[in-house]
Structures are given as structure tokens and as C-alpha cells.
């Protein structure tokens, strides 16, 4: 499937009137910086203007390309595959109107034509694909930053929302695929592919249901052994299961069966979109961590909240060694608490944070550190961010800077240096929990 996500050439089929789906996909590919050959195709021919450039529209596909992106009425898709099948390796079928609306025969015909020609199909009824490291944005969804997360989504609309949210959360993506009805390629194929993709550090999967449970389990185990697989499962309730079946035509099945499969394979299940991106952020920074956590804060309340959440999640609040406590007492003001959680009190500055992180990091009883900062108005958040960045520490550090405009500068500085912020103590604690699942 490499050609889907790292193509050298692409043809786009559909209407190229401004606002049409094929037009928006073509615009995304061009504006996204794709350097391969791009061929717009429509029987009427003509030309299209995008970003100040006028591009010829071909009436038929005359030369071979890696990928065809198809956004035409459903009934015309099987004949088109028959027509161009010898000139393409794969097709991304955006068109809806197949099994998801009860038109299973048309979908069957599409698959038969593709198999006859040796063409692989993504879709139909999908939102397209991104190969971010190839600057290939073959979708009408918002473009994203280059990074290590591959997002596999059964739902196109969910995928689009997730990409937009990922941009806001500072996530970097390696790829995105919306596979819709999964007439040919499905979640199992993509799990195996991204497990072996060098640019992918973690895989996020949104599913409603799967058709071949055994194949899915095998693929999930294969992928989870190689890198973190984060799963958001929809259709857990009885009503949700029915809704999922009508959405993509897949069988949602018993949630308990899925839950057991996730656990057995070593995948990480999350409950909501916010958690999906928190998990993605933490795995972009670190591969794993132990359960013993040290909490460093300048505010007692958030430190207590983090402690409560950590213990509830099964993490251990590390018992600091006598040597660590004595060293902390040697430079911290007497008002500070040197027990875990370590409270540096409100006026904690660069030096106090930096030295504390470095001392705690040397403690053999500590596997990871959670740094909380609620800066007073007289200490810029950038100062504490710099302390986190400058501290000599070889153990995972998770940061919780809060809140809003008060810490915006510090959070931006951290993110420039690859350190992601978790905006609440509870979310930061949960991020550490996910790291322990990869031990």
C-alpha cells in the first residue's frame, strides 16, 4: 500500500467547479505542496483555476498513475474502474451511495471490477487519505502538520474533526486514512501497513465495527507489538451499535468482545477524542515509563488532584529516598514540602524548578516526573518552561501548565522543543498511565 501514502502521481476524477468535492481535493493536493504529477479528469475537459494557476482538465486518463481519487456519482464508479484499471494501482473512492444506503450490489460490482484489474480500493463512502511525509493531501479535510501519528478512521466526518482537533492540540501526523465502507482495504490492512511504516510512531484507530474479527485481532496484535495502538471504539451501547451498523454497514457486535480483544492484543483503548490525542501526544514524546511517579508543583491543590488521579489509575506515588529529601531541603525554602508531591510554593522560579527536577530525576525510586505549574502574575510561564527544558533528566517528564492565556507563552516554548502540555492535572496523570501500559 506504499503507493497510496507515498505516491509519485495522482489523478482526480469529478467536478472541478469551485466548492465541488473533487475541486477541494485538487486544491488540497496543490496547496499542500505535492511534487508528483497531478491529473484532473472530467469528460467535459476545460481548465480549472486554483491558487492563481490555470490547470488543464483531461477528458480521459491517458497515462498511468499510482492513485486515482474518485468523486463522481456512485453508479458511474464501477464502469470507471473498468475503464482506467490498467492505468492505476489503487483508487480512493470518495463517492457515497453504496452499501451504507443498502446498495450492496453496486458495491459488489465495484469490488469485482477492481479485482479483475488488480486495483486496490479505499472506500467507497470515505473522506480520502493523507500521506503527510510525501506532502500528499488526497482529501477534502483540513491539512495537518508533519509528525508521527497515523490516524485510521472508519468515519470520514470523525476523521475530519479529529484532524482539526489534532492541529489545535499540536499533534504531528504521518498519515490519515478514512476507509468508509471498507469494500476492499480495511482497518486490518492499515494496521499492518502503519506498523511497518518508518515515519509512524503511533497509530490511532476509530472504529465502529469490523467484519472479520479474527483477521482484525491478528493485525492488532502485530501492530501493538511494534508501536502504540490507540483505539476509540464507537457503538458500545445497544443504540450506538445500531447507529454504527446503519452508518457504514459494518457489524458493531458486542462491546465486551471488542474490549477483550483490545486487552489481549496490547492496544490502548480510550473513551473520548480528548483522550485519544492526549495518548498520541505522550507517545510522540516517550515509548514507555514505569509506575512510580514524582509530582513537582508550585500549587498544592493541583498537586493533590494529580495525586488522587494517579493513585486511582494504579500509578504509585514514589517514596523519595532519604538522600533526595535531604538534598531538596538543602536549597528549598522551609515552607516547601519535600515529600511527594513536592510543593515548591507559589513563588517558585527557574532555579527552584530546575534544581528540583534534576535532584528528583536521580532518585532510583522514581520512574517518571509530573511537573505542574500555575504561575503567579509576577513569574512568566516561559521562565518555568525553560527550567523544564534545561533540567538534566533522562526520565520521562510530563507537564501540566495551567491555565489559558496565563501559560500560553510557556506552552508554546515547550512545544517548540517537543514537550507537549497536558492542560489539567488529571489529563497529565492519565498520560503517564498510558506510558506504563507499554512496559
Task: Give your account of this protein's structure.
With 439 residues, this protein is α/β, with parallel strands linked by helices. The chain has three domains: 1-125, 3-Layer(aba) Sandwich (Rossmann fold); 141-285, Rossmann fold; 287-436, Rossmann fold (3-Layer(aba) Sandwich), CATH 3.40.50. 40% of the residues lie in helices and 21% in strands. The protein is built from 16 helices and 19 strands. The chain has helices at residues 2-5, 21-31, 77-84, 104-117, 156-169, 187-195, 213-226, 238-248, 255-265, 273-285, 300-312, 322-331, 350-361, 381-390, 408-416, 425-436, and strands spanning 9-14, 37-41, 47-50, 53-56, 65-71, 88-93, 120-122, 128-131, 136-139, 146-153, 173-178, 202-207, 229-233, 268-270, 292-297, 316-317, 342-343, 368-373, 397-401. The protein has a seven-stranded mixed sheet with strand order 9-8-11-10-12-13-14, with helices on both faces. Strand 1, helix 2 and strand 2 (37-41) form a beta-alpha-beta unit. The model is unreliable at 244-252 (pLDDT under 50).
